[in-house]
Structure formats: structure tokens, C-alpha cells
Amino acid sequence: MTASSSSPSATAILFLFSIFAGVALAQVPAKDRFKYVNQGEFGPFITEYDASYRATPLFGSPYQLMWYNTTPGEFYLGLRMGLRRSESLFRWVWDVNRGKPVGENATLTFGTDGNLVLAEANGRTVWSTGTANKGVVGIKIVPGAGNLVLFDKNGRFVWQSFDHPTDTLLPGQSLRLTGPSKLVSRKSEKENSDGKYSFVVEPKGLALYMAASPKPLPYFNYLGAPFGRLAFTTPSNITFLPEPESDDNFAWELKLVQNNGADILARPKYNASLSILRLQLDGNLVAFTYYEPVDSQAWERTFSFFSDNGILEGCELPSKCGSLGVCKDDMCVACPTPNGLLGWSDSCSSPKDGACKAAAGAAYYKVVGVENFLTKFVKGQTVKLDDCKKKCSADCKCLGFFFWEKESKCWLAPTLGTLNQVSNSSHVAYIKSS
Ligand SMILES: *[C@@H]1O[C@H](CO)[C@@H](O)[C@H](O)[C@H]1NC(C)=O
Ligand SMILES: *[C@@H]1O[C@H](CO)[C@@H](O)[C@H](O)[C@H]1NC(C)=O
Ligand SMILES: *[C@@H]1O[C@H](CO)[C@@H](O)[C@H](O)[C@H]1NC(C)=O
Ligand SMILES: *[C@@H]1O[C@H](CO)[C@@H](O)[C@H](O)[C@H]1NC(C)=O
């Protein structure tokens, strides 16, 4: 009787013991634990966004984890790319806590349980990897790749920063249909929160979006992809990969690798393994390559999505001419006004920008031979000119509309931006003037 009743509990004790033993085995060794405090002098070098910074010891060439700020007292923990030796700009290529700044004396703790925790000085947790007791035994920044990883005793990545991109893809990093599926631009030089633009992998290809109400507007997608570039025949994930073109290593390729092949973005004629793909503040998608052997100006812009040797022309970038401007050959050449085309400056804007009077009796002025991203990437409605006008007049958020006279195609414009000059004079824009 006694024997049979004690046996199950003995098993339970053994079982519990083995769990504890397992946890004990998976602890972070004392020498690898740390608590970094955000305090002390700022570093002396020039970094992107003119940020001040304090280094942490976490380093994997040429990346280092740092506290940095562009506004006093609002710190972000981010990955800085570049080496001191090169005397070139340092770039911020990943953020731990975008949009959630911490203050002086904030802490980053990597404890026994394998959780990486960012907390305010008063102990309030701001962010963590959520990896407590999941077998994590160490942390590192993978050299070359810039992936911050928490790994288990078999070297498997339990958590990786590659799964949480901000605005930049690093060498070997992927966007997946199942997520993470996008990059989001930074709000401004000063403000490190989500900006207006996103770069997204979708089942039919890659897309660029601008935030708008009621829903984001595409300024690139498969509908207007030249030669089907960055469009998919079957759904695919993508990986940003700099690779030598051939064994002799003369030229390198910056690729977006898909399931069926790859799209080559650029071919730098030197070792371009340290390249990044960035969704910029202005919505352009740009690759920068860091070439270690040179002593100054180690960065080169090796690809620009909206440019002569990119995927679309410079004039197709919605933000190119600020809130309004006519663009030709990569230059903003005119400001359309009710009195005709005037010289362009960055103060050019539509009369209705920011205002919303009673919709009835709205007046418009016409600009001939222009298009913008809407006519290429958004499906227009087939309606008569007067009906298109009425729809815009009834909509307080409508700043004007694009109209193709031959087909009677109408696109209401909640944003105008760059008007790309085209030779076809039946493609026109009507801008609301009152
Ligand atoms: C940060 O902590 C130090 C002590 O380690 C203290 O002297 C300093 O006043 C603290 N700074 C702030 C802004 O709380
Ligand atoms: C994309 O990647 C995810 C995760 O690695 C995988 O499960 C999925 O099958 C991939 N999808 C495609 C279409 O390759
Ligand atoms: C390219 O440069 C990287 C970083 O400096 C280096 O690790 C790699 O070996 C180089 N690759 C080749 C093929 O030379
Ligand atoms: C202008 O575009 C329309 C389609 O909107 C097309 O039917 C017409 O042929 C084009 N005209 C010229 C001169 O390219």
C-alpha cells in the first residue's frame, strides 16, 4: 500500500527535478550576463541624423549596439554600422525601441533566464525579447550580417533582430509573406517613430505604400512594374543578398532573391558584402554599400529605386517635389497655380492643402500632360469628367483629380505631390483651388 502510493509522487519529484535540471543547464553563464546603463560621455564621431551616442560593448564587425538620441533625454537602442578606422559616417541600421524612447540611466539587461530587457531607470520594462527560460545561453551580433541573436546551446537562434526590421534590410535579411513582411520609414531626422512610407512583400510582388486616409496608397506594385521587375509569378519571400557575380570576384551583385530567381538591383565593381537596403525618410528605396578598405567616404549609394538607373524614374517618387510640383528629367521644373505654371520652390503647394471649406462650388484649374503614381498603381474609375469633378467636390479630403480624357478615367487625389510630365496631353490633372 505504502509503496504503491509513494511511487507516483516519487516519479513526480523525479520529473520536477529533471525540469529544474533542464532549466539549470540552459542558463546564461555568469560571464555572459550583463546590465548596461545609459549614462556617461557621448562619443565623438558623426552619425546619421546628427545623433549623439553612447556605446555598449556588444560588437560584431562592423556593427555595434549603442544608445543614441536626436532629442535630449529621448534615447533609442540601435545598431550602428561603420568602423572608427574608416572615418566615415556611421549609419543607424536597426532600432530596438523605435517610437518608445527611454531616458538617462535606462538599462539593458541580459540575465540568467536568457531574457533581454530594456527598462527605464525606475525599472519599468519598455521592451524585451520575451525569451525567459527558453533555453537561451548567449547573445551576439553576427559579424557581417548585423543580426543580433539570442542562441541556445546548439547554436540555434531563439530570437533574432532579423525578425524585427525597422527601415533597413541587412545582408541576408528576409521579408516574408508570413511576417515580418515590411520595412517602415523613419518619421524624420529628429523623430524616430514610424514614418509615412512602407515597403511590403505581397503575394503578387513587392509594393511601396504611402500612409493615407482611408487606406494606404501604393506608389509601386506589380500593376506598373516595368518588365515585371519585383513582381512574382508565384508568391514568394525575398532576401536581400550581396554576392560576388562570379568566382573571380571582380563585380558584386546586390540582389533581391525570390523563390524563382532574383532581381539584381546594382552591380558595384568591388566587394559589396557590406550593403544595406533602406526605405528612406522620403519614401525612396536605396542601397548603401560600405567599403571597408578605404579610409574616408567608405559609403556609396549603389542603388536608388527612383532614379535613372533604378526601377522607376526620379520623377515618379511622390515626395520628389514636396507637396506639389511638375517634374521632368529628375528635376522639379514648375509650380502649377491658378495663374498657370510658375517657377518651382519647395513652398509650392495646392491652394486646398490643409484647408477644407464647404465642398459645394469647388473650383479647379487644369494642368496638361501630367501623371502621378495614382494613375499607374491604383485602378481608376471610368466616369465622365463632370462626375469625376462632382466626386472630388463632395469629398473634403480630395485635393484634385487625375483624368485621362480619351478613356474617361478618373482618379481622385487625396495627395498630389510630384506631377510627372508626360508627352500625352490627354492625361491631365485638375487641382482644387477653392
Ligand atoms: C543617473 O545615475 C547617476 C548615478 O549612477 C546619477 O548620478 C544621475 O543623477 C542619474 N541621472 C539621471 C538623469 O537620473
Ligand atoms: C516564406 O517563409 C516562411 C517562413 O520561413 C515559410 O514558412 C513559407 O513557406 C515561405 N513562403 C514562400 C512562398 O516561400
Ligand atoms: C568581402 O568583404 C568582407 C568584409 O570585409 C570579407 O569578410 C569577405 O571575405 C570579402 N569577400 C571576398 C570574396 O573577398
Ligand atoms: C495618350 O494616351 C491614350 C490613353 O490614355 C492613348 O489612347 C493615346 O494613344 C495616347 N496618345 C499619344 C499621343 O501617345
TrEMBL record:
Bulb-type lectin domain residues: 43-163
Molecular-function GO terms, alphabetical: D-mannose binding
PROSITE patterns: BULB_LECTIN (PS50927), PAN (PS50948)
A Pfam family annotated for this UniProt entry: B_lectin
SUPFAM superfamilies: alpha-D-mannose-specific plant lectins
Signal sequence bounds: 1-26
Residue span(s) of domain Apple: 356-434
InterPro entries associated with the record: Bulb-type_lectin_dom, Bulb-type_lectin_dom_sf, Pan_app, SLSG/EP1
GO BP term, example: response to other organism
UniProt KW keywords: Hemagglutinin, Lectin, Mannose-binding, Repeat, Signal
Record's protein name: Uncharacterized protein
